[in-house]
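1st attempt posting a full record on here, be nice pls
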Amino acid sequence: MEQLKHIQTLAFLCILELCVSPGFGQDSADVDHSAVLELGGAGERDLKGNSSNFGATLAIEMTPVEHWLELEIGVTALATSGHTELTTDLLFKKPYRLSQTVEFMFGVGLEMVRKFSVEEQGTSLGVEGVLDFMFWPTNDIGWYLEPGYGFVPGKGAERSLGLAGGLLIGW
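the predicted structure (as tokens):
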């Protein structure tokens, strides 16, 4: 049992080193990806009904205007206790490079939410705002954390806080 704790500690320290190291001597500031794939987990908290949903997210990010505009198209599937929804979004983001290995972006965009639960079914359009933190320990592999706020207007308007995070693959 004691040996397992040492192995877990060593694995944690190796992962931590990968996340904070400057890419094993590679200059990540010179690498611009034509596209970035985001794979990860997601969670959402409904501010009106105080319910939470969890699931997975997949997105692709492209840069049409270098240092000024990034576009993200993504799909998120969330489900918890009988409440299932599929969200598709298109976000317009402004990028900032904070260091050789860290980027920050804020963005706004449109979201389309499709609900499949017994109580609620249908499709709604809304708006979304996000803060996107990207960490690139190597040139083409990294991780991200993206908190966000969503608003779907109309009858029974919905407001939610979300958090997504996971793996980045650049090419």
